[in-house]
Amino acid sequence: MKKTVLRSYARLIAKCGVNVQKGQDVIINAGLDQPEFVQMVTEECYKLGAASVKVEWNYPALEKLHYRYRSLKNLSTVLDWEKARLQHYVDTLPCRIYLDSDDPDGLKGVNQEKMAKSAQRRYPIVKPYRDQMENKYQWCIAAVPGKAWAKKLFPELRASQAMEKLWEAILSTSRVTDDPIKAWDEHNKDLFDRCSYLNNLGIESLHYYASNGTDFTVGMIPEAEFKGGGELSLQNIYFNPNIPSEECFISPMRGKAEGIVYSSKPLCYQAQLIENFSIRFHEGKAVEWHAEKNEALLTKLINMDEGSAYLGECALVPYDSPIQASGLLFYNTLFDENAACHLALGMGFADTIKDYDKYTLDECRAFGVNDSMVHEDFMIGTKDLNIDAVTRDGKTVPIFRDGNWAF
Q1: Neighbours of 217 (CB within 10 A)
Q2: Residue 273: which of 107, 142, 159 has the closest Cα?
Q3: Residue 267 contacts by C-beta under 8 Å, 6 or more apart in sequence?
Q4: What per-residue confidence (pLDDT) applies to 177?
Q5: Residues 6+ away with beta carbon under 8 Å from 310
Q6: Among residues 96, 99, 103, which one has the least CA distance to residue 36?
Q7: Pairing of strands 252-262, 272-282
Q8: SS3 of 191, please?
């Protein structure tokens, strides 16, 4: 891939993604797959005035070793230096950039029980720090090719060819055009206008139905609103948390969901694939589920904590999105969630509450925003998915017809 194109992508992530402000610190989390691109992003952050840029590298093979050899007690312990680091993040609110290149099967064979229990035990200690940072800093998730990920998508190609094909797919769906900043400005305007239309309807509930058996109704929080594309932090800085992004999303009312939904794409959770699954909800809670592959892992996800069996997000994505049009199944939630309508188990978004800056985090959750240690999107959009909105004044308004916007 041409370095000039990659440089434009790096600039997009730094400027349009996290929108680094002069004097801010930046933390980049990345795998070992694209060190030269990480270097480009680091430089673009410095050009925007970053005070410091720290790179945190990750490698799934090492993570598997940790879960194999370390005791559960050791894995569950949050050491004093880790708490000090978290407090430093609370005090300084660094920008966070996540460059995803993970192998979809990278943690296959990991001890799921030990992984889940250690996360559950660490979470109560980490949560107060996370809550203090909620909505106050800029963050962005974007992607770069990894060799194993590329070969998963293009098994018939040599590794170098597969990497090039994956670069092309990532850049195309991320709107890295001749002028990517302009392209994203226009795209954000379209998403903003669609959200405004939805918010003006006064939606009480959404009803989803499709030929695969999905028949599901979810209630809305009266104080909540749809959002999409770029958003404002509590520091009043505009940023784009996901590159790419095609969704208009909202956090539904905890406890108001009835019916069954069927997955339309695999869910990559803990670097493992859960495939061909369904979830039935009653009084907002997942009460029955089945999966053809990795049902035990789906069970672990739903039972992670009290909130993980409830919904935190409803996202509307047209079936004719650029990602769906690519014809690729990415085996990566960042992309696959933006190819189809999806729901999320777990944590909801406090910033979907209108004028959320006037409320505390606890007050936003009291409106009905779900709280959990997880937030996992799963795709339910199909070519024939229909969605109707029932408004607070009793009207039924078509939102989706045959997988796409009805307005």
Answers
A1: 16
A2: 107
A3: 273, 274, 275, 277, 298, 333, 376, 377, 378, 379
A4: 87
A5: 254, 255, 257, 284, 285, 286, 345, 346, 370, 372
A6: 99
A7: antiparallel
A8: helix
Q: What is the dihedral of CA 270, 311, 29, 184, to 10 degrees?
A: 130
Query: Pairing between strand 267-269 and 272-282?
Result: antiparallel
Mean local confidence (pLDDT), 140-150: 97
Strands 248-250 vs 238-239: parallel, antiparallel or unpaired: unpaired
Tens of pLDDT, residues 239-257: 999 999 999 999 999 999 9
Tell me the pairing of strands 375-379 and 386-391: unpaired
257-276 pLDDT, tens per residue?
Answer: 999 999 999 998 987 889 99
* C-alpha to C-alpha distance for 112 and 299, rounded to whole angstroms: 11
* Amino acid, res. 66: H
The model's pLDDT over 6-54, given as tens digits with 9 standing for 90+, comes to 999 999 999 999 999 999 999 999 999 999 999 999 999 999 999 999 9
CB-CB contact of 357 with 234 (8 Å): yes
Predicted model pTM: 0.92
| Triad 188, 191, 197: Cα angle to 5° | 140
Match 């004093």 to its residue by tokens.
Answer: 80
What gap in Å lies between CA 203 and CA 116, rounded to an integer?
36
- Cα 116 to chain centroid distance, Å, stands at 20
With contact defined as beta carbons under 8 Å apart, do 11 and 44 qualify?
A: yes
